[in-house]
Amino acid sequence: MKIESIRAIPGVSGFFFDDQRAIKAGAETDGFSYHGNPVTPGFERIREAGESLMVEVKLTDGTVVTGDCCAVQYSGVGGRDPLFRASEYRPTVEGPVADALVGRDAATFADNATIIETLAPDSNNGDRLHTAIRYGVSQALLAAAARARQTTRFDVLATVLGTDPATEPIPVFGQSGDARRVNAEKMLIKGVPVLPHGLFNSLETVGADGQRLVSYLNWLSERTAELGPDGYAPRFHVDVYGTLGDLFGDPYDRAAVTDYFRDLAEAAAPYPLQIEGPMDAAGRSAQIHAMAELRDGLADAGVPVDIVADEWCNTFDDVRAFVDAGAADVVQVKTPDLGGIQRSGAAVTYCEGTDTRAYLGGTCNETVTSARACAHVALATDAAQVLAKPGMGFDEGFMVVTNEMRRALARQHGAVSTTEQQT
């Protein structure tokens, strides 16, 4: 079975593009928008509608498989690719990308995905295709290979990566958005394994002295006991977007910092806690140094809080650098930032045999199509946790990712019809 044609259609994504630099610099909210001017190149406003580029690959048996090109909410910062405009990149997908892939064997996913990773650069993004293009096209290529081989997408990817795939759904991590309490309560009622993200993206939300975050974790712990199902033992995961670095500054192994993290752990108790993006340093090397310093300081002080790498941990090489340096207990594999979806799988597997766990993440600003594809990556690699996406409403993303994993496992372990396999 061969690839017959490829086309791209501009679409919308599950959330928004936000200028993180402007927000962290104190941009005032205006309802759901922000006052002020953008800071990051490419933005016309601080908050803009998210975009996607839908890729359709038609196979010679008449089947059409899909993938969605999309980029993270906070694009253009922390070493990430610039803001993604669907109409700007549509000619790249229907031109050079299609030219390179049409006529190729749909079953050879690894070879086809490598072509996209090494394709000559477009005029807007330096020496390679934008990560969003590689991300979306590779999703469609994975679906094409699964169709051609009459199997599941995670089975194809596990074969490529040489992994033993999961036999049970991966723990799902729910994200609350700004509705930190209402959405967290939804998660507790549904027994979500990892929660609530929290979106603590400014000193205002964390508190001038950090105490708003402490109070929130104390509330979350109390509500977990009140609302969670019997036997419920979740893990708390809060993203602070570098704000604790702004609050304390370096060095991060000093008592003032570790004592504060102890307060966080005590507020979250008896539930384990992991803090994502504690600081946002000036570049990857500086971020690795700061994260490792904090991790060592917490270990020496006996503070049971895990730290999660996000800022400056975007590419496969970045993930490898953080893991090799022992700079994090958990690394987020931020799927749109790695390019081809197979690279996200490789990044997860790189954590095997280390003391760093892999969180298959991404962004609220994705689509149902990309979220379903990532569920297969999580299963293929047996990741530690996987993000509920797209959107910030929680319920929808949790449903999409959870149901896709359950559906895929049922297909893999039971009789699979031709109609089921092509979706």
CATH level-1 class of the largest domain: Alpha Beta
- Total count of domains: 2
Count the helices. How many? Answer: 16
Secondary-structure element order, N to C? EHEEEEHHHHEHEHHEHHEHEHEHEHEHH
Could you tell me the mean pLDDT?
Answer: 94
The main sheet comes to:
8 strands, parallel
Approximate shape:
globular
With strands numbered from the N-terminus, the spatial order across the biggest sheet is 6-13-12-11-10-9-8-7
Description:
This protein is of the alpha/beta class. The protein folds into two domains: 3-161, Enolase-like, domain 1, CATH 3.30.390; 172-421, TIM Barrel (Alpha-Beta Barrel). 43% of the residues lie in helices and 17% in strands. Strands 6-13-12-11-10-9-8-7 form an eight-stranded parallel β-sheet. Strands 1-4-5 form a three-stranded antiparallel β-sheet, with helices on both faces. It has a two-stranded antiparallel ribbon with strand order 2-3. A hairpin with a 4-residue loop joins strand 4 (47-59) and strand 5. Helix 4 packs across helix 5 (153-161) and helix 5 (153-161) packs across helix 14. 52% of the residues are buried. Residues 415-423 have low confidence and may be disordered.
